[in-house]
Write a structure and sequence with these properties.
Largest sheet: 2 strands, antiparallel
Radius of gyration: 23 Å
Number of helices: 11
Oligomer: single chain
Distance between the termini: 41 Å
Shape: flat
Number of strands: 4
C-alpha cells in the first residue's frame, strides 16, 4: 500500500478533508514535540492496536437502517454522540498509530495503518451524526401552523449524509485491515480473537447494512447484474433466443477493477469474490435461468 497520507486527503469528501487534514496535521506536530509514540515494527504496531481494542466501541453507528421503496430517505439507529465520546478518548493514540504504521513496511503494518485510519474516519463521521441528532431538540416533530407551514424540527440531512459517507469509508477500511490481520494472525490468541471478531463484524456490515446505506444516500448499488450469456439457447426452435439470458450479480468495485468487462475467463472468479449482499437478490423465475 505504501504511504497514503496525501492520498487519503484526495479521497475524502470536501467537508471531511478539513477534518482529516487538521487531525493528521495535529498528530504530526504533537509527535514532533513528544517524540515517537511507540514501537514501529510490525509486532509493536499490532501490540499497540491490541491495547486500543478494548477501548474501541463495540458497535458502530448506524446499527440499523430503515429505507422504504417509495421514499428517498429513511432512518438510522444508534448513539452517535456516545460513540464519538468513546473515540474522543483515544483519538490521539489512533492518529499516532496511523502515522507510525503508515511509515512502516509490510502487509501487517499496512493493515494496522488502514484500521487506524478507518477508526478516524468513523470518529469524524460520528461528529456530523451527533450534531444532527442534537439539532432542534426544543422543537416538536411534524407540526404545522394554520397555513400549513412547518413549525417542527428540521433534520440536518446534509450532516447525516456527510457523517454516513465517512462511516462507510471507515468501515470499508476496517474490513480491509482486519481481514488481513485475520489471515496473517500476528497477535497473541486473546487479541487475535478480537481482531477476528472485528473482521467478522465488518463482513456482516458490508453484506447487510452497506447496501441499505447506499439506498438511503441514493448511491449506486454495491452489486450490478451482468448478462453472462445472451441469445444462446440449448433448445433451438423451441426456446426463443429473444429472452434467453443468464445473469450474474457482480460486486460493482470488482467489476470496475476488471475494466468493466465480464468475460468467460473472469466471470467465475468475479462471482466467487462477490459477497452475498442484500442488493443482489434472486431474480424472478423467468430471468433466473
Amino acid at each position: 500500500m505504501g504511504s497514503r497520507r496525501r492520498v487519503v486527503l484526495a479521497l475524502t469528501a470536501c467537508v471531511a478533508v478539513g477534518v482529516a487534514a487538521l487531525g493528521i496535521g495535529g498528530a504530526v506536530a504533537q509527535q514532533d514535540e513528544d517524540g515517537a509514540a511507540g514501537g514501529t515494527d510490525p509486532s509493536a504496531l499490532v501490540e499497540r492496536l491490541g491495547e486500543l481494542e478494548p477501548q474501541l466501541p463495540d458497535t458502530i453507528v448506524p446499527t440499523a437502517v430503515t429505507v422504504t421503496d417509495d421514499e428517498t430517505w429513511g432512518t438510522i439507529e444508534g448513539d452517535a454522540a456516545g460513540m464519538r465520546a468513546v473515540l474522543d478518548t483515544i483519538e490521539g493514540d489512533l492518529r499516532s498509530l496511523f502515522i507510525d504504521a503508515d511509515e512502516a513496511d509490510g502487509d501487517v503494518a499496512d493493515a494496522v495503518s488502514t484500521i487506524a485510519l478507518g477508526w478516524l474516519d468513523i470518529w469524524g463521521g460520528a461528529e456530523f451524526l451527533a450534531v444532527a441528532d442534537s439539532h432542534d431538540l426544543a422543537f416538536p416533530l411534524d407540526t404545522f401552523d394554520a397555513d400549513g407551514v412547518a413549525t417542527g424540527a428540521d433534520e440536518l440531512r446534509g450532516n447525516v449524509e456527510a457523517g454516513l459517507k465517512l462511516v462507510l469509508q471507515g468501515r470499508a477500511r476496517l474490513l480491509e485491515g482486519y481481514t488481513v490481520l485475520r489471515e496473517q494472525g500476528p497477535a497473541d490468541p486473546e487479541i487475535q480473537a478480537r481482531f477476528d471478531a472485528r473482521a467478522t463484524a465488518a463482513e456482516d456490515f458490508d453484506t447487510d447494512l452497506r447496501p441499505e446505506l447506499h439506498a438511503l444516500l441514493s448511491e449506486p448499488s454495491t452489486g450490478v447484474w451482468i448478462a453472462v450469456d445472451r441469445f444462446t439457447t440449448e433448445l433451438p426452435g423451441v426456446e426463443p433466443r429473444a429472452n434467453a439470458v443468464q445473469l450474474a450479480c457482480i460486486d460493482r468495485e470488482l467489476l470496475r477493477e476488471a475494466g468493466g468487462i465480464v468475460t468467460a475467463e473472469n466471470v467465475a472468479e468475479l462471482v466467487a469474490q462477490t459477497p452475498e449482499r442484500t442488493d443482489c437478490p434472486d431474480l424472478p423465475e423467468p430471468l433466473d435461468d
